[in-house]
Amino acid sequence: MPETRPKTFDSLEALEGYLEVMGRTPSDEGPGITELDHGLQCALELRAVAPDDAELHVAGLVHDIGHGLVHIRDHAWSGAETIRALLGDRVATLVGLHIDAKRYLVTTDPGYRVTLSPTSIETLALQGGDMSAEAVAAFEAWPSWREALMLRRADEAAKTPGREVPGLEAWLPALRETASRQVKAGA
Ligand SMILES: [Fe+2]
Q1: Of the four, 141, 155, 157, 183, which is 20 to 30 A from 101 by CA?
Q2: CA 28 to ligand 1 center in whole angstroms
Q3: What's the gap in Å between 10 CA and the centre of ligand 1?
Q4: What is the distance in A from the centroid of ligand 1 to the CA of 137?
Protein backbone atom coordinates (compact mmCIF):
# COMPACT_ATOMS: atom_id res chain seq x y z
CA MET A 1 0.00 0.00 0.00
CA PRO A 2 1.21 3.51 -0.69
CA GLU A 3 2.55 5.73 2.05
CA THR A 4 0.05 8.50 1.37
CA ARG A 5 -2.49 7.38 3.93
CA PRO A 6 -2.82 9.66 6.96
CA LYS A 7 -3.23 8.20 10.45
CA THR A 8 -6.75 9.57 10.45
CA PHE A 9 -8.87 10.91 7.62
CA ASP A 10 -9.97 14.40 8.56
CA SER A 11 -12.03 15.10 5.47
CA LEU A 12 -14.21 13.21 3.04
CA GLU A 13 -12.02 14.43 0.21
CA ALA A 14 -9.00 12.77 1.81
CA LEU A 15 -10.91 9.53 2.31
CA GLU A 16 -12.29 9.56 -1.23
CA GLY A 17 -8.81 10.21 -2.57
CA TYR A 18 -7.49 7.25 -0.66
CA LEU A 19 -10.32 4.99 -1.85
CA GLU A 20 -9.28 5.92 -5.40
CA VAL A 21 -5.75 4.83 -4.52
CA MET A 22 -7.21 1.53 -3.32
CA GLY A 23 -8.72 1.24 -6.80
CA ARG A 24 -5.19 0.98 -8.15
CA THR A 25 -4.03 -1.44 -5.45
CA PRO A 26 -4.32 -5.18 -6.16
CA SER A 27 -6.20 -7.13 -3.49
CA ASP A 28 -4.52 -9.95 -1.60
CA GLU A 29 -7.39 -12.14 -2.76
CA GLY A 30 -5.81 -12.75 -6.13
CA PRO A 31 -5.52 -11.36 -9.65
CA GLY A 32 -8.21 -9.24 -11.26
CA ILE A 33 -9.55 -7.54 -8.13
CA THR A 34 -8.40 -4.36 -6.42
CA GLU A 35 -8.82 -3.35 -2.81
CA LEU A 36 -11.54 -0.92 -3.91
CA ASP A 37 -13.34 -3.57 -6.02
CA HIS A 38 -13.50 -5.71 -2.88
CA GLY A 39 -14.97 -2.86 -0.82
CA LEU A 40 -17.49 -1.98 -3.56
CA GLN A 41 -18.64 -5.60 -3.80
CA CYS A 42 -18.90 -5.80 -0.01
CA ALA A 43 -21.02 -2.63 0.21
CA LEU A 44 -23.33 -3.97 -2.50
CA GLU A 45 -23.74 -7.31 -0.71
CA LEU A 46 -24.70 -5.41 2.45
CA ARG A 47 -27.20 -3.22 0.66
CA ALA A 48 -28.90 -6.40 -0.57
CA VAL A 49 -29.35 -7.79 2.95
CA ALA A 50 -29.84 -4.51 4.88
CA PRO A 51 -31.10 -1.92 2.39
CA ASP A 52 -31.82 0.79 4.97
CA ASP A 53 -28.55 0.65 6.91
CA ALA A 54 -26.37 3.16 5.05
CA GLU A 55 -23.75 3.10 7.83
CA LEU A 56 -23.34 -0.63 7.32
CA HIS A 57 -22.88 -0.13 3.58
CA VAL A 58 -20.24 2.50 4.29
CA ALA A 59 -18.51 0.19 6.76
CA GLY A 60 -18.43 -2.52 4.09
CA LEU A 61 -16.93 -0.09 1.60
CA VAL A 62 -14.05 0.93 3.90
CA HIS A 63 -13.62 -2.21 6.04
CA ASP A 64 -10.16 -3.07 4.71
CA ILE A 65 -8.82 0.48 4.79
CA GLY A 66 -6.24 -0.69 7.36
CA HIS A 67 -4.69 -3.21 4.96
CA GLY A 68 -1.01 -2.55 4.64
CA LEU A 69 -1.06 -0.16 7.58
CA VAL A 70 -0.04 -2.77 10.11
CA HIS A 71 0.28 -6.55 10.39
CA ILE A 72 -2.69 -8.38 8.82
CA ARG A 73 -3.63 -9.56 12.32
CA ASP A 74 -4.31 -6.00 13.50
CA HIS A 75 -5.59 -4.24 10.39
CA ALA A 76 -9.24 -4.13 11.46
CA TRP A 77 -8.92 -1.90 14.54
CA SER A 78 -6.06 0.14 13.05
CA GLY A 79 -8.24 0.83 10.03
CA ALA A 80 -11.19 1.65 12.30
CA GLU A 81 -9.19 4.38 14.00
CA THR A 82 -8.41 6.08 10.69
CA ILE A 83 -12.11 6.66 9.98
CA ARG A 84 -13.62 6.96 13.49
CA ALA A 85 -13.56 10.78 13.67
CA LEU A 86 -14.98 11.13 10.18
CA LEU A 87 -17.56 8.33 10.04
CA GLY A 88 -18.36 7.78 13.72
CA ASP A 89 -18.17 5.12 16.38
CA ARG A 90 -20.66 2.71 14.85
CA VAL A 91 -18.89 2.50 11.49
CA ALA A 92 -15.54 2.26 13.31
CA THR A 93 -16.84 -0.61 15.45
CA LEU A 94 -18.15 -2.48 12.42
CA VAL A 95 -14.78 -2.09 10.68
CA GLY A 96 -12.88 -2.98 13.85
CA LEU A 97 -14.89 -6.15 14.46
CA HIS A 98 -14.53 -7.69 11.02
CA ILE A 99 -11.66 -9.97 11.97
CA ASP A 100 -13.21 -11.04 15.26
CA ALA A 101 -16.45 -11.64 13.35
CA LYS A 102 -14.62 -14.20 11.23
CA ARG A 103 -13.29 -15.89 14.37
CA TYR A 104 -16.77 -15.80 15.91
CA LEU A 105 -18.40 -17.39 12.87
CA VAL A 106 -15.74 -20.08 12.56
CA THR A 107 -16.33 -20.93 16.22
CA THR A 108 -20.13 -20.85 16.26
CA ASP A 109 -21.22 -21.84 12.75
CA PRO A 110 -19.99 -25.26 11.58
CA GLY A 111 -20.72 -24.43 7.93
CA TYR A 112 -18.91 -21.10 7.85
CA ARG A 113 -15.30 -22.27 7.57
CA VAL A 114 -15.87 -23.81 4.13
CA THR A 115 -17.03 -20.43 2.80
CA LEU A 116 -13.69 -18.79 3.58
CA SER A 117 -11.32 -17.92 0.76
CA PRO A 118 -7.81 -19.45 0.82
CA THR A 119 -6.42 -16.08 1.98
CA SER A 120 -8.98 -15.85 4.80
CA ILE A 121 -8.12 -19.36 5.97
CA GLU A 122 -4.42 -18.55 5.86
CA THR A 123 -4.82 -15.40 7.96
CA LEU A 124 -7.26 -16.96 10.44
CA ALA A 125 -4.52 -18.63 12.47
CA LEU A 126 -2.48 -15.41 12.56
CA GLN A 127 -5.58 -13.59 13.77
CA GLY A 128 -6.15 -15.90 16.73
CA GLY A 129 -8.15 -18.80 15.22
CA ASP A 130 -11.21 -20.10 17.08
CA MET A 131 -12.62 -18.07 19.99
CA SER A 132 -12.87 -19.11 23.61
CA ALA A 133 -16.31 -19.08 25.25
CA GLU A 134 -15.31 -15.82 26.97
CA ALA A 135 -14.32 -14.23 23.67
CA VAL A 136 -17.64 -15.31 22.12
CA ALA A 137 -19.52 -13.67 25.01
CA ALA A 138 -17.39 -10.52 24.73
CA PHE A 139 -18.12 -10.32 21.00
CA GLU A 140 -21.86 -10.56 21.63
CA ALA A 141 -21.61 -7.68 24.10
CA TRP A 142 -20.69 -5.22 21.32
CA PRO A 143 -23.43 -2.98 19.99
CA SER A 144 -24.00 -3.82 16.32
CA TRP A 145 -22.40 -7.26 16.70
CA ARG A 146 -25.08 -8.82 14.50
CA GLU A 147 -24.37 -6.29 11.75
CA ALA A 148 -20.66 -7.04 12.17
CA LEU A 149 -21.50 -10.66 11.27
CA MET A 150 -23.43 -9.44 8.23
CA LEU A 151 -20.38 -7.45 7.18
CA ARG A 152 -18.19 -10.50 7.59
CA ARG A 153 -20.41 -12.68 5.44
CA ALA A 154 -20.53 -9.93 2.82
CA ASP A 155 -16.73 -9.70 3.00
CA GLU A 156 -16.42 -13.35 1.94
CA ALA A 157 -18.96 -12.83 -0.86
CA ALA A 158 -17.04 -9.82 -2.22
CA LYS A 159 -14.03 -11.44 -3.82
CA THR A 160 -15.08 -12.05 -7.41
CA PRO A 161 -12.56 -10.82 -10.00
CA GLY A 162 -14.15 -8.84 -12.81
CA ARG A 163 -17.60 -8.57 -11.20
CA GLU A 164 -19.47 -5.52 -12.50
CA VAL A 165 -20.74 -3.42 -9.59
CA PRO A 166 -21.60 0.25 -9.09
CA GLY A 167 -18.51 2.43 -8.70
CA LEU A 168 -17.37 4.64 -5.84
CA GLU A 169 -19.68 7.47 -6.95
CA ALA A 170 -22.69 5.29 -6.06
CA TRP A 171 -21.64 5.34 -2.40
CA LEU A 172 -20.69 9.00 -2.08
CA PRO A 173 -24.15 10.10 -0.88
CA ALA A 174 -24.06 7.49 1.92
CA LEU A 175 -20.50 8.48 2.81
CA ARG A 176 -21.44 12.17 2.92
CA GLU A 177 -24.58 11.53 4.93
CA THR A 178 -22.68 9.42 7.47
CA ALA A 179 -19.93 12.02 7.80
CA SER A 180 -22.36 14.92 8.14
CA ARG A 181 -24.16 13.09 10.94
CA GLN A 182 -20.86 13.03 12.89
CA VAL A 183 -20.35 16.74 12.34
CA LYS A 184 -23.85 17.40 13.69
CA ALA A 185 -23.31 15.06 16.65
CA GLY A 186 -20.09 16.89 17.51
CA ALA A 187 -21.54 20.37 17.00
FE1 LIG B 1 -12.20 -7.81 3.34
Answers
A1: 183
A2: 9
A3: 23
A4: 24
